Amino acid sequence: MFKVFDFKCDKGHVTEKMVDANTSSIPCPECGELATKQLAAPMSVLEGVSGAFPGAAMKWDKAHSARLP
What we know:
Strand order of the largest sheet: 2-1-4-3
Distance between the termini: 49 Å
CATH architecture of the domain at 1-39: Single Sheet
Helix content: 10-25%
Number of helices: 1
Number of strands: 4
């Protein structure tokens, strides 16, 4: 299965690439050195007031906006 991973070389260049999950390194597209897979935190966005996931807040906002004149 292919996934997007972050890779970083020794010169500090960071790149994203869609590769097989077993791939641990690729050539850096900027300098050609070996870039290794980095551990990246997943991005999650929470609604600012309640801490709910944005889908719930967006659904409420859409329903509320539809009822306004």
